[in-house]
Please model this.
Amino acid sequence: MLQHSTRNRLLAYRTAVARNLRDITFFQDKTHIAVAQNQYTYDCDGVELHCLNPHIEPTRLAFLPYHWLSASVGNAGYLKYQDTSTGQLLVEHRTKFGTCNAMAQNRHSVVIHLGHR
Model:
């Protein structure tokens, strides 16, 4: 995994996982990551930190740094927001469009945009 924000593309850390990765996002100060494989967040040593039970097989992930929220969407089409400091699920919205293929964040308005086929 690479820290894409650095100029010289330094390797942030490396870890082996036994499952397919669908998406990945860095949290806070780039020492924590969330991996869309099952329901886990990891630290920079690859140690599992949290199990995100409400996120069922997420396919896309995003981190909202000014609000300390994680956003995810899965095959069922539910957009879920979770507080990363307390682990509490704040809200989930059903998109009614099925599987989401793309997820992007507007950093100025903190709006999550989803793309469906």
User: Anything to note?
Assistant: Residues 4-116 form a domain with the Methylamine Dehydrogenase; Chain H fold (CATH 2.130.10.10). The chain has one domain: 4-116.
